[in-house]
Amino acid sequence: xxxxxxxxxxxxxxxxxxxxxxxxxxxxxxxxxxxxxxxxxxxxxxxxxxxxxxxxxxxxxxxxxxxxxxxxxxxxxxxxxxxxxxxxxxxxxxxxxxxxxxxxxxxxxxxxxxxxxxxxxxxxxxxxxxx
Length: 131
Prior knowledge:
Blueprint (H helix, E strand, L loop, with lengths): L13 H21 L24 E4 L5 E3 L2 E3 L4 H10 L5 E6 L5 H15 L3 E5 L3
Parallel strand pairs: 1-4, 4-5
Antiparallel strand pairs: 1-2, 2-3
């Protein structure tokens, strides 16, 4: 026989599982009913205003024979800052895309970038590649 101090007690978890399942079902039913969206007013495009056109890109191309083309027009290294200044006057952003021949050394491209940064300060450069 076992004495009262040696009794091993066990917990009956079946009623607890039943309560958890009932609560789970209640929350599954209530949750879709209580979801609310946010009322948002989306901006409408007015009929009278024309959509703004994106600015054309400024592309400086350096060919294999070290010739520079600014948007397809041949320019010398001395004329380049003045020509870019003319293009930047009518633009909001100062971005310059550079496309160089693959046979050129990067020092040619870096020199052109340094000259533009020295002349205009905050110029954003993008390097274009051929597909």
